[in-house]
Design brief:
The protein is of the alpha+beta class and 641 residues long. The chain folds into 4 domains: 195 residues, Triger factor/SurA peptide-binding fold (Orthogonal Bundle); 116 residues, Chitinase A, domain 3 (Roll); 102 residues, Chitinase A, domain 3, CATH 3.10.50; 103 residues, Chitinase A, domain 3 (Roll). The protein contains 22 helices and 23 strands. The strands form 8 sheets. It has a 4-stranded antiparallel β-sheet with strand order 18-5-22-21. A 4-stranded antiparallel β-sheet has the order 14-7-16-15. Strands 10-9-12-11 form a 4-stranded antiparallel β-sheet, sandwiched between helices. The chain is extended, with a radius of gyration of 34 Å.
Length: 641
């Protein structure tokens, strides 16, 4: 989950989804027809398909639609431009090809499709009239009638080409059987993950070891310029502590902001999620059984948080499944119904949602009410004190800035005495290094390496208050001695040696496992923990390993057979096949239709993509497709947004 917290506005999305499906493309807005202009200058053309121009205006019109729900990140704009242009080019290319092959869309075909998409435009078989039709098109798909009907025509043309390209594609029974086995064959393994990071603490390093390691690659180590800074801080906490707030002021604030203290019905819940998205019926049934076993443990009094950490597939598992407080309308209906129908402390039965099976525990419940003044008094007091501290800080900051301007090279210590500020001195700072005592601000790092020794900065606002800085000393950059970078050298030494140690331990464990020794016992002897997986399919995953594809060889191994050590990124894995579960032949008939449909759809999509690429290549070879690279580059720059 916590996708379950996302409510979906189904209205327009359903209609757009239907059209998107007809177009066989993931994003409707990429395929909307260009608005065009009454006259096109060559300077505005970004692509030419046969005798048809695609202009920068056309592309920007599509981009404008994409930004209706939020601006495109500047870094992603070139990608969006490429995608939009690609769809506009393909639309034109299909038009050229359709004319050559005599493929067209009749008015009747267009009308039949519109009747499917907007059935309410025809009441009792009779057309409702242009005005109502236009209103329904605008309401459902957010565009005018000509644009909508043009889009419908384009989708029909594309459907006809898709049918021509993919009609001969089929899936054989043997291919269905092979896919059935791929999806349903499962293995269980005992496995050990050897992580160099976990071995670093075991690496001993004497002075001679570090000295030799340092001398071998000493050019890698240097000490950058460092600066020591004296500072004076006008602390917000001190200003806040000195701010006086009366009971009458707190009461007045409470009365003025009463609405923000009204709480709706809410429930503090935790859950355990067993995902079923993308699973076969047989897999869903297995997941249900596992969920029911966990449910029995939860209702028998087992620690719910521990069960969530062990079994949940939600991102909240590390917090024991805790979702914090939820209110009505915040979750999917099935989850909400269960959460708000249970009393405090109760655990639900299995709750099925679009995400999978949930076990829900209600940690606490609160009915709608307005918080009393005494409940919220501390936060009101803190808020009012903070407001006064902010105002006092702004005023004092202005006075400090004026003092610095008037006095010239006034010292930090003199400013601190005059304005009741806290004085301190930093450790030697490298570029970009913060000064924790004064709070966070990007201006601090810049000021430290911009100031000349003895100069005093203007007041800088941080999350802790206002600070003025003065550089006390500058230590020039120089080649490092071992003493200066000992901690870094030690960390590098341990990291490198841990990698070597992990490799040797993996080789030893793999050799002994191959020789028939018990993997669990041998791992323990070497200081590692062996884990046992659940049964998993080729599309499954393993804790600390990742995708099952990393251990795909397990599906070709016999029970009891051990693997060679596998190097996966930075870790080593050794495993032994504990169980090899073959698919149940009786499930083949149940899954055949689903597998056949998915394989057929995938092949058809591949064939149509190949057709599209081939058409694009041919158009370029025949000189019918030309791209203006300069205008394309201009479209991708932020100035064109």
């Amino acid at each position: 989950m916590w996708d379950a917290k996302r409510k979906k506005n189904l209205g327009v999305r359903i209609m757009l989804g239907v059209i998107v499906g007809l177009l066989g493309c993931g994003m409707l807005l990429y395929l909307l027809p260009g608005q065009g202009t009454s006259s096109t200058s060559s300077a505005d053309v970004v692509a030419q398909v046969d005798d048809q121009a695609i202009t920068m205006t056309d592309v920007n019109a599509q981009l404008s639609r994409l930004t209706q729900n939020g601006a495109i990140l500047a870094a992603l704009k070139p990608l969006y431009v490429q995608q939009v242009l690609s769809e506009l080019v393909f639309e034109k290319e299909l038009g050229v090809e359709a004319r050559q092959l005599g493929i067209s869309v009749t008015d009747q075909e267009r009308a039949d499709r519109i009747r499917q998409l907007i059935p309410t435009a025809f009441m009792g078989g009779a057309f409702v009239g242009n005005d109502q039709y236009a209103a329904q098109v605008q309401e459902r798909v957010g565009m005018g009638v000509p644009e909508f009907e043009d889009l419908v025509g384009q989708s029909l043309v594309q459907e006809k080409f898709r049918q021509l390209v993919t009609d001969g594609i089929s899936v054989t029974p043997s291919e269905i059987d092979q896919e059935f086995r791929r999806r349903n064959e499962k293995v269980k393994i005992n496995y050990v993950v050897i992580k160099p990071d976990d071995l670093q603490s075991k690496i001993e390093a004497g002075d001679s070891d570090l000295s030799a390691y340092f001398e071998k690659d000493k050019a890698r180590y240097s000490v950058p310029e460092r600066r020591i800074v004296r500072y004076a801080l006008l602390d917000f906490d001190q200003l806040k502590a000195r701010a006086n707030v009366t009971d009458d002021e707190i009461q007045a604030y409470y009365n003025q902001h009463l609405d923000q203290y009204k709480l709706p019905d809410r429930a503090h819940v935790a859950h355990i999620l067993f995902k079923t998205v993308g699973k076969t019926d047989a897999e869903v049934e297995e997941i249900r059984k596992k969920a029911e076993d966990v449910l029995k443990k939860a209702k028998a009094g087992a620690n719910f948080a521990d069960l969530a950490k062990q079994n949940s597939e939600d991102t909240t598992k590390d917090k024991g499944g805790d979702l914090d407080w939820i209110v009505r309308g915040q979750t999917v209906p099935e989850f909400e119904q269960a959460a708000f129908s249970l009393p405090k402390g109760a655990i639900s039965d299995l709750v099925k949602t679009q995400y999978g099976f949930h076990i829900i525990k209600v940690i606490d419940r609160e009915q709608a009410h307005t918080q009393a003044l005494q409940e919220v008094r501390p936060q009101i007091l803190s808020s009012l004190q903070q407001e006064r501290a902010d105002r006092a800080g702004e005023g004092a900051s202005d006075q400090i800035a004026e003092e610095i301007r008037r006095s010239g090279r006034v010292s930090v210590d003199d400013l601190a005495k005059k304005f009741n500020m806290t004085v301190g001195e930093s450790q030697p700072l490298e570029a970009g290094q913060p000064i924790p005592a004064v709070g966070n601000s990007p201006e601090i790092a810049d000021a430290v390496f911009r100031l000349r020794p003895g100069d005093v900065s203007a007041p800088i606002h941080t999350d802790k208050g206002y600070v003025v800085l003065s550089v006390k000393d500058v230590q020039q950059a120089h080649p490092a001695t071992l003493a200066e970078v000992r901690e870094k050298v030690l960390a590098d030494y341990r990291r490198d040696k841990a990698v070597d140690l992990a490799k040797s331990k993996a080789a030893e464990l793999g050799r002994r496992a191959k020789a028939g020794e018990d993997l669990v016992k041998t791992a323990k002897d070497l200081g590692f923990e062996a884990k046992t997986s659940d049964l998993f399919a080729r599309n499954g995953s393993l804790p600390d390993v990742g995708s099952a594809s990393q251990v795909i060889a397990a599906f070709t191994m016999s029970e009891g057979q051990a693997s060679d050590p596998l190097f996966l990124g930075s870790n080593w894995v050794i495993y032994r096949v504990a169980q090899h579960q073959r698919p149940d032949p009786n499930d083949l008939a149940k899954q055949t239709a689903d597998i056949q449909s998915q394989l057929l759809e995938a092949r058809r999509n591949m064939a149509f993509d190949a057709f599209r690429k081939s058409l694009d290549t041919r158009m370029k070879q025949e000189g019918k497709l030309r791209i203006n690279a300069d205008n394309l580059k201009r479209l991708g720059t932020p100035s064109n947004s």
